[in-house]
Amino acid sequence: MKDIPSLLLLLLLYTLQGVPMGLASAIPIMLQSSGFGFGAKALFSFAAWPYSLKVLWSPVVDAVYSDAFGRRKSWVVPVQIITGLVMIAMGMIIDDELVPGAAPNLWRLTAAFFALYFLVATQDIAVDGWALTMLRPENVGLASVCNSVGQTAGYIISYALLLALGDAEFCNSYLRVESARSDSPIVTLGSFMLFWGAVFVVITALVGIFKSEKAAAVQEGRPPPDHSFAAAGAAIRHSYHDAWRVLTLPSVLKLIVVLLTARAAFAAIQGGMDLELLQKGVPKQTLLVIGLVYTPFEIVFSLMASKWTAGSRPLGVWTSAYPLRIAIGLGLLLVVSALPDVQPGEHSEHPLWWYVVLVALFVSMRLSANVMFVAQMAFSNRIADDRIGGTYMTILNTVSNAGAMWSTPVALMSIEFLEQSGCYSADAVAKAGDSWLPFVNMGLTASDRMQLPNSKGMASSCITQAGWEQCAAAGGQCSHLADGYALTGLACTAIGLLWFAFFWGQLNHLQDLPKSAWLLVSEKGGKRDSE
To answer: Which residues cross the membrane (predicted)?
Structure first.
């Protein structure tokens, strides 16, 4: 296949894109012992918002470029080099910012990763558009596979390696001989970011030197572009105008409603599961192993899903996976919520069969999510107008990401609000222990919460080992008003079932629409632009 080199390049670019995502996902787990709870994770999740805002600058990426260097290379190369330099700069100072046991400066940390996500989101715009012209028309659908496999690989490589090599206990248990054991990990977050920053710079330099790109004028059969300031400004205005026209297409408006609301069903169970497992005493190493186990399955399933979605009805695969993912998530919720809370820093013991069930459900949930992602990307690639491919794909991807960006923080804040975790009177906790209502401590009220000196809030007072010990010394007991994770997860599941019943017919309708329903209409004469 002549497109194999191009597919490998896309896979590499999407892999780099997944690296900062893995780093960001590892931080809440690394800082859990410093009081990083559900509310903190809700705030930190705003760092990923550039993926939901990139539609604001995607027309600029589509319109401004050097035709001699390459329409997409004009953005991919400088943006990835800047990304590498930012990671190097962050690597030099971040270890001093994140001191173990001390509360991190969440606003500063969120702002730093927001900037990193902004750069990676810009790269995503250019790569999505490049994929539409780099591949032959019959292979464009494979771009969704490269996106899924590449982002997953980059995410897991950075997430798993950082959690493994950045944890002294894991290094001593599995990577070091007894004589070489130490209280320090093999790598820190800072050194890890320095390494990946250098990787970004080197790989991008090689892409810039050795990968050529056909001139946009040749690709689109038009005269060479005018790159004067006036022409560039006109091109940007034209791109924004086209983006607005895409957003006003009736078919696109219907799809936007679907993409904005579909992921609310999974926001609580998937978004809060890692912190919930840590609070239940599941070791970080177990989360790492789970991540490593599902990676090969996810890559294989991405390839299989590309075949399932290669036909004319990729949304059929999506609608089949949606209720399955809801059912798997409900099973995972019940398995996790059945565990008792433990003191921070302690590990709970569970039988082997419990871990087998947990891993099986987690892998199944991720695989169903991956199948839905590939199906959605295949559908987007099929309907996108390739003359403004970067902008069109970015609009659809941005809306889809926004569906997770709004629902996940809301779910996480709901979990923390319902739990009201803190130090309560031991007598009140004992009386509330016989509650007949699942997941709720009936009889325990906010007035039973004890005020501890130097407490930094009701969540942080018990989420750390020091806070737990301080509560016990004062004659109290760490508890919560309700199991916020379980209650929010059940609410999201119910919302998902109602959503699917309402939108199932709408999804079939969107899939049956002709290609012409997704193309821009000429403003002269009323014909489709492509006609």
So the answer is: 36-53, 74-94, 106-127, 139-166, 186-210, 246-266, 286-305, 317-340, 352-375, 485-505
User: Most distant CA pair in the chain: distance in Å?
Assistant: 81
Residues with Cβ within 8 Å of residue 53, at least 6 apart in sequence: 121, 398
- Say if residue 530's pLDDT is above 50: no
- How many Cα atoms are found within 13 Å in the side-chain-facing hemisphere of 85? 7
Max mean pLDDT range (32-41, 366-375, 455-464)? 366-375
**What angle do the packed helices 4-30 and 142-165 form, to 10 degrees?**
40
Q: Are 45 and 408 in contact (CB under 8 A)?
A: yes
The two three-digit tokens of residue 512, written as one number: 């049956």
In the DSSP assignment, the letter for residue 71 is: T
Quick: pLDDT tens for 239-271.
Answer: 788 888 888 899 999 999 999 999 999 999 999
User: Residue 433: helix, strand or coil by DSSP?
Assistant: coil
The answer, as to whether pTM is greater than 0.85, is: no
Q: Which long-range contacts (CB under 8 A, 24 or more apart) does 240-243 make?
A: 240/59, 242/59, 242/388, 242/391, 242/520, 243/55, 243/58, 243/59, 243/388, 243/391, 243/395
Rg of the chain taking only CA atoms, in angstroms: 25
Element (H, E) at 242: helix 229-247
Tell me the per-residue pLDDT of 341-353, one tens digit each, with 9 for 90 and over: 777 667 777 788 8
- Which residue's entry shows tokens 């199906």? 375
- The whole-number pLDDT of residue 226 equals 56
Tokens of 281: 């005493």
C-alpha to C-alpha distance for 126 and 130, rounded to whole angstroms: 6
The DSSP element (H or E) to which 422 belongs, if any, is: strand 422-425
Question: In the chain, where are the structural domains located?
Answer: 4-214+239-420+485-514, 422-481
User: Which string of DSSP letters, residue by residue, matches 268-337?
Assistant: HHHHSHHHHHHHTT--HHHHHHHHHHHHHHHHHHHHHHHHHTSSS-HHHHHHHHHHHHHHHHHHHHHHHH
How much is the pLDDT for 64? 82
Among residues 466, 420, 477, 479, which one has the least CA distance to residue 33?
A: 466
**Residue 314, CB half-sphere, CA atoms under 13 Å: how many?**
22
Exposed e or buried b for every residue in 376-411, given b needs 16+ CB within 10 A?
A: bbbbbbbbbbbbbbbbbbbbbbbbbbbbbbbbbbbb
Cα–Cα distance, 50 to 269 (Å, whole number): 23
What H or E segment, with its residue span, contains residue 478? strand 476-479
pLDDT at residue 311, rounded to an integer? 66
Q: What is the pLDDT of residues 132-151, one digit of tens each?
A: 888 888 788 788 788 888 98
Region 23-49 average pLDDT = 83
Q: Where are the alpha helices (DSSP H) in 178-223?
A: 189-210, 216-220
**What's the CATH number for 4-214+239-420+485-514?**
1.20.1250.20
Measured from the Cβ of residue 521, the count of other Cβ atoms closer than 10 Å reads 14
